[in-house]
Amino acid sequence: MHVLHSINKTIYETFFFSILSYLVNNRSIMASQQQNREELEERARLGETVIPGGTGGKRRSRGGQTRKQQLGSEGYQEMGTKGGQTRKEQMGREGYQEMGRKGGLSTMDKSGEQRAAEEGIDIDESKFRND
């Protein structure tokens, strides 16, 4: 009986100390979170934009160079204008304008051609020349 009592006492002590340890750790975590919250609120009161759970003002590196950095400003600008000019040159001015009319009629569920037919708008596709 004495042995059983000492085993139960040891189990209870272990259980008690583990719960006590958990509560102390949890309390320090909660205090730390409260302190962080108070710091964010103070920074917000001073007019700073704060985001809970954010990086704390530190930038996260995205790595590598952007396309603009690789090509330089002039090369990047040239790359942006090439596509439209080439298409316009291929189709001619009138064809390009007709295609714009057709594209302007398109919606999420209907093509420009379908909408033009429904609304009786004539689109002259003969102007879509391919040289």
From TrEMBL:
<protein>
    <submittedName>
        <fullName>Putative small hydrophilic plant seed protein</fullName>
    </submittedName>
</protein>
<dbReference type="InterPro" id="IPR000389">
    <property type="entry name" value="Small_hydrophilic_seed_prot"/>
</dbReference>
<feature type="compositionally biased region" description="Basic and acidic residues">
    <location>
        <begin position="36"/>
        <end position="46"/>
    </location>
</feature>
<dbReference type="InterPro" id="IPR038956">
    <property type="entry name" value="LEA_5"/>
</dbReference>
<feature type="region of interest" description="Disordered">
    <location>
        <begin position="32"/>
        <end position="131"/>
    </location>
</feature>
<feature type="compositionally biased region" description="Basic and acidic residues">
    <location>
        <begin position="86"/>
        <end position="101"/>
    </location>
</feature>
<feature type="compositionally biased region" description="Basic and acidic residues">
    <location>
        <begin position="110"/>
        <end position="131"/>
    </location>
</feature>
<dbReference type="Pfam" id="PF00477">
    <property type="entry name" value="LEA_5"/>
</dbReference>
